[in-house]
Amino acid sequence: VKHTQQQTKLANMSMVNKEKQLEEGSVVRRIRITLSSRNVKNLEKVSSELVRNAKDKNLKVRGPMRMPTKTLRLTVRKSPCGEGTNTWDKFEMRIHKRVIDLKSPSEIVKQITSISLEPGVDVEVTITDS
To answer: Once rounded to an integer, what is the mean pLDDT over residues 46-53?
Structure first.
């Protein structure tokens, strides 16, 4: 019984040492990836691919969190000269946004974000110390 207890203590100590080496070698940072697009399908495809890649590398992932959609509206007169009946055209552009939070070393983020992006999807990466 004493022999197995010593082995478990040594195993626990080695696990702690490995964690310390990981922390010392590469600093774990908090990374926020912000995706924005006018096309929801492209946005969802890119965000799900990012989350899948991060989970494959065993990182802590939060998201994709859906931010409120911004609706940009523009109302203009149909008539170019201003005469005639007052008729109006209404144009609208919706901007959808997703936020993904990761906790990982900054070297791994380059591997995760090196995916093929869909057209029209903007990516913003913010890295801070955790």
So the answer is: 91
| Number of neighbours of residue 51 by Cβ within 10 angstroms | 20
Which amino acid appears at position 53 of this protein?
A: N
Would the CA dihedral through 39, 100, 113, 57 be positive or negative? negative
Give me the DSSP letters along the chain. -HHHHHHHHHHHHHHHHHHHHHHHHS-EEEEEEEEEES-HHHHHHHHHHHHHHHHHTT-EEEEEEEEEEEEEEEEEES-SSS-SS--EEEEEEEEEEEEEEEEEEHHHHHHHT-SPPPTTEEEEEEEEE-
pLDDT band at 118 (very low <50, low <70, confident <90, very high): confident
Cα 100 from Cα 117, distance rounded (Å): 15
Residue 83: per-residue pLDDT: 87
